[in-house]
Amino acid sequence: MLIAIPDVLTAEQVAHARQLLDSTEWVDGKGTAGYQSAKAKDNMQLPEDSPAARELGEMILSALSKNPLFHAAALPQRIFPPLFNRYSGGQSFGTHVDNAIRQHPTMPIRIRTDLSATLFFAGPEEYDGGELCIEDTYGVQRVKLPPGHLVLYPSTSLHHVTPVTRGARICSFFWLQSMIRDNGQRSLLFDLDLAIQRLGRDLKNNPVAEQTGVQLTGVYHNLLRQWAEM
Fold this sequence. Notes:
The protein is an alpha+beta fold. Helix content is about 35%, strand content about 30%. Helix 5 (about 185-200) runs antiparallel to helix 6. The two termini are about 20 Å apart.
């Protein structure tokens, strides 16, 4: 399941982030890549412990905690602190799969990477190239979203970032462990959740629809109870 989540951050939050990101120091992005990924990775990154990375990471996590579409799609259990990268001057990231397990940088826990996320800070008109290309069941999906928008996709997917030939592509990226390990089960729950919400919204004050909504909500929670890993 690949899903774009609009307006995770407000325009004001994006503007504040760009001020910090444009004025801070970037380092070689190979530092957070695995052995194989490092061979394909050519970009710049904020140091994980930089004040800007910490402030903006907290801002992103706070915004996600209030985003119902993100929670419906991800059913998050643990989220790796957001990282930040920058591509320019022909930089790219070749085809790779994200590491399966990540050690949390500040806590004694490991995170299984069920889902990968990219949050865009630069608008599509600011740079040429830089598409996030994700291989899924339906072929290669090319993603280049407006500032403040996020794409969520399975970490098992092969993906790459095409060379940036003009301007700069600036994003945050991170991984999360879902309560539902299996992508197919997670997709079914997401579709069911959206159907329940649509039923309540479009057939409001309809007794039959309300009863059906209660039954479907029960099915949703019973499946969640059966499949969730805590």
